[in-house]
Structure formats: C-alpha cells, structure tokens
C-alpha cells in the first residue's frame, strides 16, 4: 500500500507540477536517483514486478552527470546487476540536447534516438520518465 501511495503521488507530481522552466543550465550538474517507480501513462508499455525490481537495483543511487560540454556520464550503483550496468555504459560520453518545447532530453543525436527523457524540474528535484519504458525516476541535485 505505501508503494501505491508513493506511485500515485509521484505520478500526480510529474503530471501536475508547476515546474520550473527547463533550461540547459537547470539540467547541468550531477543528479542522484532517489526513487524508482512506474508510471501508467501508456498502458501498452510492458511492466512486471521483476522488471521493476531490476530497474530499482539498476537506477537507485546511481548518478547522471550532464556536463557543460553536453556530454552525459552515468555511474551505476554497486548493487546494479552486471548486465544492466554494462548496458548503461552506452550512455557514457554521449552528447545530450534539450528540447525545451517538449521537455525532452535527447541522449545522442535526436535522429538516433539512443534514449529520450521526459523531464520536469522542481527545485532540487528532477522527475524523469525514460521514453518507451514504464520508469519514473526521481533525481536529486548533488
């Protein structure tokens, strides 16, 4: 029940936040993932308890750094499954770009679509939905 309440609150927060205007400068820096939940914005995206468990082990306490040269660096947490940690290395040294209109961060060239993050920012928190996944991640600026 507590997870359901948390999920509901995070979903409401992402959908209804009076978020700060997303700018390049507001994204720069290092962010640590403090919470991993699922969203239900697209019911066609598969979701399972096992997948959410793996996502939590992979992302919780991992960091993403968006540097001023527009490179992204990901540091996995020590509990991340080896296969997922290796897969996440694909994000390292990738260029990132911001689509302010759509609140999207593109990883790699937008035409390549390595990954897209739907982003909302409020204070020191960054709420991220990874495109084509059921994942809703809450990051804190560090």
TrEMBL record:
<feature type="signal peptide">
    <location>
        <begin position="1"/>
        <end position="19"/>
    </location>
</feature>
<protein>
    <recommendedName>
        <fullName>Lipocalin-like domain-containing protein</fullName>
    </recommendedName>
</protein>
<keyword id="KW-0732">Signal</keyword>
């Amino acid at each position: 029940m507590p997870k359901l309440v948390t999920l509901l609150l995070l979903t409401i927060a992402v959908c209804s936040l009076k978020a700060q205007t997303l700018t390049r400068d507001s994204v720069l820096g290092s962010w640590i993932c403090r919470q991993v939940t699922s969203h239900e914005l697209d019911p066609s995206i598969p979701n399972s308890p096992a997948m959410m468990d793996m996502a939590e082990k992979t992302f919780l306490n991992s960091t993403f750094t968006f540097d001023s040269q527009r490179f992204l660096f990901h540091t996995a947490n020590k509990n991340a499954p080896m296969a997922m940690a290796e897969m996440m290395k694909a994000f390292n040294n990738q260029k990132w770009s911001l689509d302010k209109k759509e609140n999207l961060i593109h990883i790699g060239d937008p035409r390549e679509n390595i990954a897209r993050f739907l982003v909302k920012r409020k204070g020191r928190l960054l709420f991220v939905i990874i495109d084509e996944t059921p994942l809703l991640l809450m990051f804190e600026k560090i």
